[in-house]
Amino acid sequence: MTALAAAPAPTAPVPKVLRMSPTALSQWGTCPRSWWYAYVLGHRAPQTAAMALGTQLHAEVERYLGGVPWGSAGSMILDARYRDLVAMARAGEQYLRPLVERVAAGHARVEVKAECPPGVVGPLAFSGRIDLVDDVFRLVVDHKTTSDLRAPWHPDAAALAHDPQMLLYASAVLPPGPPVHVAHIRYRTRGDPLAQMVISPDVPWANVEAAREHAAGVSHAMAALASHPADRAAEVEWSPAGCRKFGGCPHAARCPDSPVNRAFRATTAAYAAPPQESHTMSSATAPSNGAAAFNPMSLFGVAPKPTPEVAAVAARAAMPSAVASLLAPSALAVAAVVPPDARPDDVPAIVRAVAAVRALGGWPGARAAASLAAQNGVSPEALTHAATEAGIGPATETPS
Ligand code: SF4
Question: Are 281 and 183 in the same domain?
Fold first, then answer.
């Protein structure tokens, strides 16, 4: 796998801080560019409430597997959140109880470190922490928290037999040879407590070796990107698979290929093109001479007064008030693509995002919508409907 077109082999040593972890590997598998933003440029998304809940649930399950009764780490009577957490974890008790016995008998271990120094799985060190390993049964178990057990990104049993994270774990802690068994125990965090176990039994060791080979290729590609310049994001391989995953990619505002920035390019291309005779345009929005340059002010017309929502988005992005005044009425729509950790240097990307969203409701957006629709196999009517649903409003003047 190459992440950088014609990427030269790294000449500088790989920074020690760059390691391959299961999370990094998974992020790379979803979109190499999102990995680069997070691990090379350091745009780490802050820990979310969902992540914190996952950590707490893991701790509770780990205690239970170690023979500690449920709910021993806090006051179930006084702390409603802890009570809910224990209920979520206990939903998996039917799968966990046999494992408690395996741990007590000394056949299984919990919270096992999986570490490989540089050179074993490619040039980067690999490190991870395995929730449970049964050394006798050759079973590897990972606990997963999710708001939706049926979310499409959860691997089923067949996919788990090729899951890079699980197989790398197996490779790191089990001797080679016989088949291994890998399992996810998933705990639902939204709605009534519910858990499910997905197990892939008798995974041939050849799959483990294939996963290791794949990870080594990824490790080489990661190392090649270790010193890739921040201003050349467009050269880094990307995939749309993560753009809308887990509530949206946190790098959407800075990524040139995020849906909103692609929409922006389509919009500006449409705006720069000479207007067709069949369009009717108001003097406020019509370019006087088929303008070749994008002019946000003429796109927006008279800047409206910022609403409280606009002001909130502007404050979050440390955005000048003059820019904020351009945002209404699309602030709520654009808030979805502004990362919570937006910095002042993200402002141009944010403004472009705003422009793209806002433009879908005006004259230039009409042709941009048609262009996007054609690119994505969506009808222009469906796109206009989506814009209306998002509160952006229908195109006021559409091509005839
Ligand atoms: S916005 Fe999409 S393409 Fe860009 S980094 Fe995120 S997941 Fe990758």
Answer: no
